[in-house]
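Let's practice the habit of predicting before peeking. Look at the sequence and jot down your guess about where helices and strands might fall. Then scroll down.
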Amino acid sequence: EAAYAGLIKSLEHRNLNSIIEIGCGVGYIAAELKHNYPNATVWGFDISEKSIECARDLFADKGVHYIQADTLDALNCPENLSFDLMIMMDVYEHIPKSERPAVHHW
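Done guessing? Here is the structure:
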């Protein structure tokens, strides 16, 4: 919770229209981001199908788009897709160093 509180404090007074959380797990942070930025489109993305199912069950009424896929490329996102905020809470260190440049692309 302290990391999330620090994140929200650092984002004060920012206009965020599109947010993606990579490695959203069961969806808590993405749901909280939607709560703090109700006009933003919020996406929660995770490799675990079970986690995404839990996120959808737990936060179905929060208006977050939860998606299961192995990589962002697997989502067939258009090249010009952009986000005002991309967040990874306790995820980056689990990505093999050889695969990190692909994350930086987004």
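How did you do? Helices lie at 2-10, 28-36, 49-58, 100-105.
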